[in-house]
Amino acid sequence: MDYTISAVSQLSDHLRSLRKARGLTQAELGALLGVKQARVADIERDPSVVSVDQLHKFLAILGVQLVLRDTGSTWTQPTATPVPKGPNKGAW
Fold this sequence. Notes:
The protein is mainly alpha-helical and 92 residues long. It has helices spanning 8-21, 26-33, 37-45, 52-62.
């Protein structure tokens, strides 16, 4: 099954669910990764703290792959909203 991740916060739920589906505790997964249980808890809580290498190992242990799919769209940086200036804050 494929899981589309649009935000890092979504990854947290998926990592936890996959670990539990494999019947692994955080401590058991940590032992397989070579890290402490607390590190697995940190990764599951905030996946932005993990390196790509460690994420790859984490996923491999869980038997899943990281797949990059070209959607054909391009990302553009949102434009900043102008901040009003002047004494009445209504003048731009």
